[in-house]
Amino acid sequence: MARKLVVYYSWKNSAASYMAQRIADAIGADIEGIVPELAYNGNYDLAMERAKREVGCNFEPKIKPMQSNLEDYDEIIIGGPCWWQKMSSPVRTFLVKNRRRLAGKTVSCFITNYGRKPWAIEDMESLLPESCTVIPGMEIRFEDEDASCQETPDEQVTAWIETL
Question: How far apart are CA 2 and CA 4, in angstroms?
Fold first, then answer.
């Protein structure tokens, strides 16, 4: 049986962390968060101001080393929030930093979003090595950053998880 890992970034315990745990539980995967070396400020407005600057210039903040060894896994699901229609900066760093380690893996991406239609999935998939087998990703929409107000029909989310 293939070993699976869910890797995600979430500012605090938001919709992205909820979805990452839901996916991991459903498919029997290990789970690990992406942790920036310099945490985003606890104040929402200040954190989002920094995030907007970073996303605007495709900045890659330093992230802490992973505890999991990516080479030990056959399938990796990568996700996080959508920031201004793009992937979050910590997710970008993870993808760029681990490009070689993702080669030959089966990979799928997810994002949580509560704004306009994003391009984050396409951006994430464009950073994957060509040797990856890519399972189409999923955008899970929420009313706001709180995981309690999911707009994407649960049946769609469950059907996508079953493809992993």
Answer: 6
The domain tally of the chain equals 1
Concatenated DSSP letters of 110-126? EEEESSSPP-HHHHHHH
Q: How many CB atoms lie within 10 A of CB 129?
A: 15
* Residues 51, 46: Cα–Cα separation, whole Å: 9
Instruction: Tell me which residue of 122, 124, 128, 136 sits closest to 164, measured CA to CA.
Output: 136
61's tokens: 């903040």
For 136-153, how does the pLDDT look when each residue is reduced to its tens digit (9 = 90+)?
999 999 886 666 788 999
Place of tokens 């995600």: 8
User: pTM for the full model?
Assistant: 0.92
Where in the sequence is the domain holding 135, given as residue range(s)?
4-161
Q: Check which CATH number belongs to the domain holding 141 and give it.
A: 3.40.50.360
What whole-number distance in Å separates Cα of residue 55 and Cα of residue 59? 6
